[in-house]
Amino acid sequence: MTINYTALLALAEPVTGTQPGVWGDDVNKGITDYLDIAIAGTNTISTDIDVTLTKTQGDNAGSNITATTAQYMQLFFNGARTAIRNVVAPATSKIYVVNNSTTGGFAVIVKTGVSVGVSIANGEKAVIAFNGSDYVKISSSLISGLTGILPVANGGTGASTLTGVVYGNGTSAMTAASAAQIVAAIGATPVANATNVANLTGGSAGQLVYQTNTNVTGFAPVPTAGYVLSWTGSAFNWIVGVPSGAASSLSGGAQYQIPFQSGVGVTAFNSNLTFDSSTNTFGTTNITTTGAITAPQVGNMIPFYYANQAAFPSAATSHGAWAHSHADGAMFFAHGGSWVRALDADTDVTVAQGGTGLSTLTANNVILGNGTSTPLFVAPSTAGNVLTSNGTTWQSAAAPATGPTVAKTYYMAQF
Fold this sequence. Notes:
This protein has about 425 residues and is mainly beta. The protein is about 10% helix and about 30% strand. The protein has helices spanning about 25-40, 180-185, 405-415; strands at about 5, 10-15, 40-45, 50, 75, 85-90, 95-100, 110, 120, 125-130, 135-140, 165-170, 170-175, 210-215, 215-220, 225-230, 235-240, 255-265, 265-275, 280, 305, 320-325, 330-335, 340, 365-370, 375-380, 385-390, 395. β18 (about 255-265) and β19 form a beta hairpin. The longest helix is centred in the first third of the chain and has 18 residues, at about 25-40. The protein is flat and about 130 Å long.
């Protein structure tokens, strides 16, 4: 049984002429399984300790791949960490994709047994490689994880520090622009409606600048604390308090009442519609209007709630209004000076309304009218009974034992 192994990934190399009958297992467990993890395999490491990765070797007896096999492509760290943990990997040419998804905020350092290694910050994902003496970072999901200066060709500035106006130099590193370069870039001719001077001529500290005429700049006087800026009609000036003609507050009204213009130059206050600024709500009292209420066709909601019928307003002065009695669980409308209950699925239609006043009728009973009251019923009672009148009402009674037959009745009629 002779098998050699490659230096980097420890892939099996069965010697020709050996391994009779077990070559398939040698290839599967010593080559195929290792190529699988070396190209796409992930080694999940959850232990809160330092870990040493070693190259394992497979043969026809088994792959021998373990949790510390070094040939995996990706090293995925998860679980809680209480300190920075070291992962010692073989000092041979190898690329790892490292994902530090641990909790606790600690880094993971991948190194050889004697090297400094490369630190992968908590939450960072990076590609690292062995450079012949140590593992180094090739790329990172964190900008802070990269070293060096990003060149212009890769979207950077090519410079580690910049001061002043930045000046582009093609694909070369950017530099701070000189005065001559700035003039060359924007031109020596002043831009229309702009000035190239560092300071305006005239004026003093604290004065505001405004345009007094075409191409003429003026300065408002130096302000005094508590003054406000006002336009006189020809210039700006500072005045005490509120400008003439302006009111700081309206006279009249009570707290939270909303003002409205009741006439030309006349302000009034609505005593019904109010706004409470402490709760940002309208209507601390009733809203009364003599006009129609018109609203858009959207999801409006107007409650008509009353505890019971006794709480209803006068029907005489509320003709056409709706009201809901919570105690009755029903809606009522005002008509003819009375509150009339609206029919619903739970309402029995009375005799006066064209119904029976009942929600159920006993099967096979005869219905007897009872004026405006609930109808009466006559049960069939005993089999063979007939409906008879006692002169006042109807009842179910046994048929008479004797009486005129049809023939006799006919005879007496003829007589």
